[in-house]
Amino acid sequence: MGGAFLIFGPPGAGKGTQAPRLAARLGVPHVATGDMLRANVKGGTPLGIEAKSAMDAGELVSDDLVVRMLGERIAAPDAADGFLLDGFPRNVAQAEALDALLAARGRPLDCVLVLDVPEEEVVRRISGRLVAQNGRIYHELYDPPASPGIDDEQGLPLERRPDDEPDVVRNRYRNVYLAQTLPVRDHYRAAGVLEIVVDGTGSTAAVAERLDAALPA
Question: Does domain 3-214 have CATH number 3.30.300.20?
Fold first, then answer.
């Protein structure tokens, strides 16, 4: 199919779960900015070295640097027919920088795919995560351990990360997603970019079916 797509939604909406399968369905690479950043740092690329320098100094990687990485990534041969962006832009300033990059390459965004998940479902999904010291992740509701609070494989205690506490999740949803990220949707609506909204609640399989059914022919 091809095309330049952006998958959009609040934290916990399932973007990282749906995007790889969706990208394969669209016939384009899944461009997750977090993965891209880590790959550049690990590979010791010039941009990765620049990013690592900022990270080692305790600074955020600049929008400009992320956009330059994106420029290199979407110039790769596998992105000739398009791409599915995941994790960027997170605010209107980043969206404007992305617009300039895409305009310079003659490849504007074709479609914003929105996974619509209400606040309380986001809180339920994220605050229900339980983590063992071995890195295994469970969920109180959707993937519980056989014995409450205990890892199935090694018997290690399970804990909720501090940033997954319900009040912290609500604060992040309201003060980051609603205040900073949601306006990106208005930005693309104003630009006339096609928006497809899909109910992101329910099982992974159910959401995948809705996404497939909603895609343009």
Answer: no
